[in-house]
């Protein structure tokens, strides 16, 4: 359950036998009738369905539906009470499971941090379970939707509030474990946030009584429990104990201090299991105290007996709460975040947390990383605005955090340039690590050329010529900047050039970049990085070395891509075939619509001896001259 949809269709109400809809009229109550309503302190009794009034559907799933409603004199409470009604589907197994859940909840006495069973309807099918209504919905939804409000509390107050959530959950779980109940699916979305910001454990449909000496239970086939919250032994053996609940509690802590982020992001079950077997655990959230993160790690220990009990957890959280400093007046400036991101670019403070960036859609998926379109709110003394951003997320966290950190460190060290992609923010101490970059409205250059090929071919010839050389000039200027500060790109292609508003091009994909230091220009290529051979210099294919002049070779290939409007170089040739041809002196053929002068610029980049190739500074001058020419250097009427 989360924040309820008031506009949800009421058609489903008609399938609930005996439940009244429409204007509500308080029913006549025979106070002498057994079980009609509850007196304070009485155990839950059966109620008649006409005592329930449905107001909205809040969830409709494969096995159950949830409705918000009202009831009079229910659960020992006077007057009208807001309630939630859980009903099964028409499936017989769902009916039986809900009846077992009702029986389990009947066995639990009232506890401040456990969602209470107010009443039930079990005399006829379908059975219905009636619980108290949570004013703020489930905890994950609340954290994600209200993160900026939480931030506005300031760091000290915010941490105290989040710790109070952790404390409530631990108390509720301690009570359940004392009653020998295994929850089996403890997660932030199964925690309800009620009046007074009190957290209560809910969703006992997955729970099991621990009876006698039986210490574990196999997971029923009906329920698909999300693997991200499951303990290692649960993933391996499909077994659940109080100690596996402790593991899940640790995940819930992580959710709380990431303000509702999903653990393990898009990892599959097999990927999560592989990482856990290798010893990987979720990274420390940004606002989490070291002592609390150590508690999370203790909950995720491989050996069950090494994990703390819920009583131990309560004690630990109490201790963590004591070490949070009292807020001082001097903290106001730091604490008044008001739910906004501090601008990272002015003071070069790049670090942000997951809840700041809102991902909207995926635009690229690779083996190690994914790129998403997102939105971020940036604030400084002059502006306060929401802007589109690109978010690069590393999915293979166990092996690629160091690679991401190297890329982040390098991007931080590069002085700002209009033709090099800018780093806005990053986060490497949470899972999944990511960084935030400028958003390229028109995508990569190769795709832009292909998609706009008809416009270039049918438009004004001189305008098209000037435009493509503007692309080439931007690429050359960006590469000149990197070369001047000792940076080798190693993977310059049209796909790794981004096109922004006003068709300004910027060099991107700096994950392949190397720092050229102490005059050493030759750098061995890391084994894990696979470069497309079509853009690689002869010495790179032969000796696997990279320097500024191998980037010049790649620029020549990019210039060929630009002039051909996005064609693929050496298409259909394997790497050994390309190498053999280059050794014999073969180079990419001159495009039919390209002048000898422009082709000579390409050939100069592909000279066998690297010291005979032009510098990027020279190339910038040459390309600028091409752009300003009034004679036809590229005749698109001859394009083939």
In words, what does this structure look like?
The chain has 19 helices and 23 strands. By secondary structure, the protein is an alpha+beta fold. The chain has 4 domains: 11-132, Phosphorylase Kinase, domain 1 (2-Layer Sandwich), CATH 3.30.200.20; 139-329, Orthogonal Bundle (Transferase(Phosphotransferase), domain 1), CATH 1.10.510; 340-438, Phosphorylase Kinase, domain 1 (2-Layer Sandwich), CATH 3.30.200; 445-638, Transferase(Phosphotransferase) domain 1 (Transferase(Phosphotransferase), domain 1), CATH 1.10.510. Strand 19 and strand 20 form a beta hairpin. The protein starts with 51 loop residues before the first strand and ends in a 12-residue tail after the last helix. Mean pLDDT is 77; it is low at 1-42, 210-223, 325-351, 379-383, 397-401 and 515-529.
Produce a short descriptive summary.
The chain is α+β, with helices and mostly antiparallel strands. It is 34% helix and 17% strand. The longest helix is centred in the first third of the chain and has 24 residues, at 155-178.
Question: How is the topology of this model organized?
Answer:
Layout: E1 52-60, E2 64-72, E3 80-88, H1 92-106, E4 117-121, E5 128-132, H2 139-145, H3 147-151, H4 155-178, E6 181-182, E7 191-194, E8 198-201, E9 208-209, E10 217-218, H5 232-237, E11 239-240, H6 242-257, H7 269-277, H8 290-299, H9 310-323, H10 332-335, E12 341-342, E13 358-365, E14 369-379, E15 384-394, H11 397-413, E16 423-427, E17 434-438, H12 445-451, H13 453-458, H14 461-484, E18 487-488, E19 497-499, E20 505-507, E21 514-515, E22 523-524, H15 538-543, E23 545-546, H16 548-563, H17 575-583, H18 596-605, H19 616-628
